[in-house]
Amino acid sequence: MLGKNFITVEEMSQDKLESMISGEVLFPEHVQYNERRKVWNGLFDKRPAVIVNCQNEKDVMTTVRFARSQKLAVAVRGGTHHIAGYGTCEGGVLIDTSAMREVKVDLASQTVKVQSGAQAGDVIRETQKYGLAVPTGDVSKVGIAGLTLGGGMGYLRRKYGLTCDHLLEAEIVLADGHLIRVNEVENSDLFFAIRGGGGNFGIATSFTFQARPIGPMVYGIHLMYSIVDLTKILQVCRNYLREGHHDVSFNIAIHTIPPLPHVPDFLIGKKIVSLSGMHASEDMEYAAREIAPLRSIAEPLLDLCGPINYTHLHTQLDERIPVGIPAYGKSIYLRSIDDISISTITNALNKAGPTSMGMVWILGGRMAEIPAHETAFGQRDAEALVIMESLAVPGISTMEEGKGWVDEFHQKLSCQQPSLATYLNMAGLEHDPQKVVRASYGHNYERLSAVKRQYDPENIFCFNPNILPD
Questions:
Q1: Where is the FAD-binding PCMH-type domain (predicted)?
Q2: How far apart are the first and last CA of the chain?
Q3: CB within 8 Å of 32: residues ≥ 6 apart
Q4: Those residues with Cβ within 8 angstroms of residue 379's Cβ, 6 or more apart along the chain or in another chain
Q5: How confident is the model at residue 245 (pLDDT cuts 50, 70, 90)?
């Protein structure tokens, strides 16, 4: 495969590439090269042969053709947030779209056209000027391209569904360097595939989304409980989601509070359970009544629930894990939040070190109502997603310690589930990635593999949860 063949910088025509690109072209000798090659997860320290900072779709097309002509691997980066470090490569061409951040709202149709380098925060800020939103993730700094292509779970998932469920059209640069339009009518097979199938089929340069009315104020959920209440919290949250409450989306996080400037002294060093999310109703009194059961599970250590600006809500977790710290993690869907799974989660999190954390994302609602065959995102019937992560912080924890905890936790949960299926935007460093990818796409995998054979038979776009063209 072309994706595995590397050549040295000396063999490349630097002048030729620079003359064809309107953006910056960075080779290892450039001053900015080391800074621009970094990704969010400090575990990865790869050195591309060249970084091309694309300004438009023509730059992307030209770079893909150049890489093909030189038999270089191609990696694509937008937000660089994936824990598996997919936004880089060793010795190949790194196509950086982060300068392509234009967001245009069409108020008449309530649609939004977004360039692929935009972050979720760019989309939120622009759409909120008109009281609109596209469902994004739960932080503002995540890249919109990776989020959309992998599905896109955020605080509107139970109310409106996933980011990819709101995609109307995209422009994609294929492996041969051609740009095509993709929607329900044009290239509909590829349109199916890019709604959850990741970056396997080409490089998206723009997306057009259907927006939804929301904000500017929503009812925020921000609760902290003691770790001793974890079992009860998981049981109450399970029962709560089964009752409906589709206006409510939230995540449960279990972690040790670090010494940060804005954290009250009485919380520092405590292992806590936090609930973060929102109620999507404009009626604040109704929203307060709806989330009352979540506020009375036990005696909270902190309760900051109340009206909050929708834009601000999505910035609260931006600095949860600083850029550049080595991280190791995995995730797995829970078909059912049963008592056995709750016991496994509770036992694992009680053993977690100070730089390890677990998250339980409560699913269901609208995202589960869309048939699995309508988009590539096939795992819609799970009740929760469980994520386990560990950081290697000098003087506090090692990667070996964290890896051992993550692997043990994941292994115990996986034994209780029908498959290793997970949300591939949060899939970690798996021992058998192909097994996880196949399980996660389920019955959609063979259809996706056929689309891959049609649009990228040589697997040029392979730095992702890879769908093979076999």
A1: 44-214
A2: 12
A3: 24, 26
A4: 333, 372, 421, 422, 423, 440, 441, 442
A5: very high
pLDDT in tens, 277-314: 999 999 999 999 999 999 999 999 999 999 999 999 99
Query: pLDDT tens-digit profile of 147-181?
Result: 999 999 999 999 999 999 999 999 999 999 999 99
Residue type, 432: D
Query: In a 3-state reduction of DSSP, which class is residue 407?
Result: helix
- In the predicted model, is pLDDT for residue 123 greater than 90? yes
SS3 205: strand
Assigned token pair, 270: 């405590």
The H or E element containing residue 249 is strand 248-256
**b (16+ CB within 10 A) / e for 268-305:** eeebbbbbbbbbbbeeeeebbebbeebeebbebbebeb
Show the domains of the chain with their CATH numbers: 14-96 (3.30.43.10), 103-214 (3.30.465.10), 217-434 (3.40.462.20)
